[in-house]
Input
Amino acid sequence: MRWDIFCRVIDNFGDIGVCWRLAKQLQAEHGCQIRLWVDDLQSFQCICPEVQPQLARQVLTQGIEVWHWTDEVNALLHQAGCAQVVIEAFACDLPKLYVQQMAAAATKPVWLNLEYLSAEDWVLDCHALPSPHPQLPLQKHFFFPGFVKGTGGLLREHNLVETMTAWLQQGGKARLLNELGIEQPQRYQRLIFLFAYSHLELMPLLTAWGQASIPQLCLVPEGALANELRTLFPQLVRCRSLALGNLSLQLLPFINQQQFDQLLWCADVNFVRGEDSLVRALWAGKPFVWQLYRQAEDAHLEKLTAFWQHFVQGMPADLQQALWQFWLHWNQQEDVVSPWQQLLALLPEWQMHCLGWRNELCKQGDLAKNLVRFVEKKFILTPNFS
Ligand SMILES: Cc1cn([C@H]2C[C@H](O)[C@@H](COP(=O)(O)OP(=O)(O)O[C@H]3O[C@@H](C)[C@H](O)[C@@H](O)[C@H]3O)O2)c(=O)[nH]c1=O
Output
């Protein structure tokens, strides 16, 4: 079956990050023929270097077609025709001509709006709801990812945990750090992966890390925070690393999504942000701190609380208290030095909780499989779906 996935890059890398992961998994594990329509190929290239931004159409190694979604997309749409399954990622608003093509199709495509991830309760009520088109013989369904049964689930490749475990056992960490140009990585006793939006109170935290009794390595991927660090430490404009007492701070160039995941697997503590890296940090089973994409009227704090309520089940009370202080202050751009010291004392418990939570979460169906099941049901129940 042919699937079209439409993706508009609003900001950052979450939109394309999720769509690219979904495309790969649907194609590799479910044999779907994928055409990925992306409006910003430059951003896509950052996380998938094989993409050539100047091409209107291209086929990537995985066999996935990538079509450039520009303002002049109509000519391409005439060539393409519509697919049997259409994913509109994050309400990105399909091209008008494409919607007309869907309405004119003898067998109407299954049209899904893939929504943003949230742990809020209302997601359960809205997942899989239909929405008839006001004028055309079409209906779209809302598909909500989520952390509990009754939602669309989370993106997780088949055998992900087994792949990660084997990779770590076979010396993946040393190989990766070597590929990334980290000198003598074995001298560091703690690896912190710091993927975050800019933060007003970063300096006190870095100073505290530099005063730790053990040597620590902090890796910062390219993006807003790396730029902020270049402003704080102008020497980082010329070179990629800096020593701050016992802390080695190193900026990374853009790395592909696979290496990004692998870094999460090898770090001792992961700082993640947005949507996609949160999910990947969950699968890594390592202690993590989540910084949410800021929303108007602090709506992101409600999302944080909703996730927290699921995440802390079964967590010892002292860890709950320390972790919440850290997560909240981190998301409010406040000083986190004292919550960090408290958390550090509970690192083994924190680690154990993340691992246990990951293992529980793995028992649920994954998003790609849930999507495929949903689509199959629609075609079986209503072959001339309209
Ligand atoms: C820095 C970097 C990122 N990545 C990938 C990993 C992830 O797939 C992706 C980052 O996505 P996220 O973790 O979701 O964080 P983000 O902040 O980039 O994306 C955000 O964008 C907003 C518009 C959304 O509303 C948010 O929900 C969120 O998704 O980029 C790499 O592959 N290599 C890199 O070097």
Q: What stands out?
A: The domain at 2-155+365-381 is CATH 3.40.50 (Rossmann fold). The mean pLDDT is 95. The first helix runs from residue 14 to 30. The chain has two domains: 2-155+365-381, 160-361.
